[in-house]
Amino acid sequence: LLGRGSVNVVDDGLEDDIAIMEELECLRPDSMKPATDPKLNGQWNFVLSKDDLGTQLIKELLPPDYYSFSNDGEEPDDKTTKSSPPWKALLGNLYQLQGLYMKIYDAQSAVDIVLSSKIAFGKIPIDIVFSTSLLSTNYDEATEGTLFLEKFEAISVGGISLPLPSSWQRFRYLEITYLDDEITIARGSGGEPHVLVKAKD
């Protein structure tokens, strides 16, 4: 999965972060088996993802400082202070995306991808949750303990279940290519990277 060519990222200025990510993947010891490691359980916040259409839309909807890691008291950079497009201001009155995270639980076998949101001028909190199942698998010795089959199981909005599109009812590969107490790196079937940081208790 590491040799699939260049990838696009959430922000054009994050090439250095991608390089660091790939270095971490290369340094992964053979003993690292996320499929059986309880460290994989918990809440993980997305900080870096492939720059596809869906990711771009989520990026635009997130608060401007979501990807800013400046210290308290520092001025935000130009990327967080640039003016928003008119459509975003209009949509913001109806829907506000507050955060995006992944919660892994049930002994590394279940995942909730949560879009933490507010509607009605930010007055009503509502979560959009995509639930998937994970099944440990492998196609060679190198992926043993790191590769999963992931399948969408449910969608809910504000706790109300919605019909699952038939096109989603199939398995796809998900590989956890790095895991420690603070960072995990996941790659989907197409090799696209997702870097996540463990949420603090």
Which class best fits the helix and strand makeup? alpha+beta
Share of residues in helices = 10-25%
Discrete helix count = 4
Topology order in helix (H) and strand (E) letters? HEHHHEEEEEEEE
Strand neighbour order, sheet with most strands: 1-2-3-4-5-7-8-9
Cα-atom radius of gyration? 18 Å
Overall geometry: globular
Overview of the structural elements:
The protein is of the alpha+beta class and about 200 residues long. It has four helices and nine strands; from the N terminus they run αβαααββββββββ. It has helices spanning about 15-25, 55-60, 80, 85-95; strands at about 40-50, 95-105, 110-120, 125-135, 145-155, 160, 170-180, 185-190, 195-200. Strands 1-2-3-4-5-7-8-9 form an eight-stranded antiparallel β-barrel. A hairpin with a 4-residue loop joins strand 3 (about 110-120) and strand 4 (about 125-135). The longest helix is centred in the first third of the chain and has 12 residues, at about 15-25. Mean pLDDT is about 80; it is low at about 1-10 and about 70-75.
